[in-house]
Amino acid sequence: MRSVIDAIGNTPLIRLKRASEETGCEILGKAEFMNPGQSVKDRAGLFIIRDAEKRGLLRPGGVIVEGTAGNTGIGLTVVAKALGYRTVIVIPDTQSQEKKDALRLLGAELIEVPAVPYKNPNNYVKVSGRLAEQLAKSEPNGAIWANQFDNVANREGHIRTTAAEIWQQTGGKVDGFVSAVGTGGTLAGVAIGLKAKSPAVKIAIADPLGAALYSYYTSGELKAEGSSITEGIGQGRITANLEDFTPDFSYQIPDEEALPIVFGLIQEEGICVGGSTGINIAGAIRLARQLGPGHTIVTVLADFGTRYQSKLFNPDFLRSKSLPVPDWMETEPSISV
Ligand code: PMP
């Protein structure tokens, strides 16, 4: 490998034992936490930067600006460092401390802003867009806005890599794909890529509470209710990455259904992931039940769990959200020396 960039993608497809046994299907998770930035968003980071280079928008030492829940910022920064660019990352202050620490450690310039809805001009995405415009004028080597939500280089990365890898790793034996949506790059990109190989592949969206897409795809209305402690997912609009895409099935997954799956994976299968992966696997289980036993369903293990130690894996935080705390999380060590 010539650089860390070559370590992005080609992630393993891991059989999820409990989910498979419970449904009689093969439920497989694409281990995106094994990317160098420990999430699925390294792929978007790489494709967005390569696309900007091809368009002649990036000069050596140039700045990449982005608004992100954290993982895209990490992916962009890993790639930027390897290629000689800088990143300025705007993040809502509600996102986990671990992701903010990782961004600072990697050398991103981090700007925390209050979390406000998309329609508010001070929303992190809009702040990042304005900042990019400003820096394009003042930075000696220029600046670009990555714009992951509406930049389709994001989903192109999933058409060209994630979908192609899933097809190759399953030998074309894949009946369904499910994931949650942040930008929609993963879901729409993998859907387009797999359907081009076989139109029979069923695609499902797993939407957390607080997102508007379940309502959109089932009733045509963008309406959100409730909330979720998951990060990086939960969309309220049709992004450019979601255009020309309709899922075959839509599921709305409450945290109470998703989080026990995450806790079980860590305790029973040695797979350490964040909350969005719980939504993804809950969606895969629902699709498995819908299609019946004997099918192969793929989903995404979106990021590594230690990124949420202070929240999802913190009993006090779970209690503050009125979510059940698993016993093992509060058990004292049984061996003393
Ligand atoms: N899970 C996590 C943890 C993420 O950070 C993201 C990206 N924001 C997603 C899932 C959703 O991916 P996408 O943006 O491709 O829809």
TrEMBL record:
Matches recorded under SUPFAM superfamilies: Tryptophan synthase beta subunit-like PLP-dependent enzymes
Cofactor(s) this protein cannot do without: pyridoxal 5'-phosphate
UniProt keyword terms in alphabetical order: Pyridoxal phosphate
Domain of life: Bacteria
Domain Tryptophan synthase beta chain-like PALP: 6-303
Family matches, as InterPro entries: Cys_Synth/Cystath_Beta-Synth, P-phosphate_BS, TrpB-like_PALP, TrpB-like_PALP_sf
Protein name (record): Cysteine synthase A
Organism whose genome encodes this protein: Aminobacter carboxidus
